[in-house]
Design goal:
Number of strands: 3
Oligomer: single chain
Radius of gyration: 14 Å
Structural class: alpha+beta
Number of helices: 1
Strand content: 25-35%
Strand order of the largest sheet: 1-2-3
Helix content: 10-25%
Largest sheet: 3 strands, antiparallel
Order of helices and strands: EEEH
Length: 72
C-alpha cells in the first residue's frame, strides 16, 4: 500500500457466485470484511448479502473521503 492508496479493496471469490470483499486500511486499522452469496439456497446465514448489496466500494469511498478530509 502506498500513501496514494490509503484504502484498498480486495475481492475474494473462491466459489463461483460467492465470496467477500476486504477493505484494507494503510493506517493499521483492522480490515472490514463484507461477505456475499448470490445463491439463496447456499446461504448459511440469513443476513448474508448478495453481491450487489455487498459493494464494499461504497465503504472504501467513504473511508477515502475521511483520509482526504472531506465529510461523507
Amino acid at each position: 500500500m502506498t500513501d496514494a492508496d490509503p484504502v484498498r479493496l480486495l475481492k475474494q471469490e473462491a466459489v463461483p457466485d460467492a465470496g467477500s470483499y476486504e477493505v484494507r486500511f494503510a493506517d493499521g486499522r483492522p480490515s472490514i470484511f463484507v461477505y456475499w452469496d448470490d445463491m439463496p439456497s447456499r446461504r448459511l446465514r440469513p443476513d448474508l448479502l448478495t453481491r450487489s448489496d455487498a459493494e464494499a466500494k461504497t465503504i472504501a469511498r467513504i473511508e477515502r473521503d475521511k483520509f482526504a478530509g472531506h465529510s461523507a
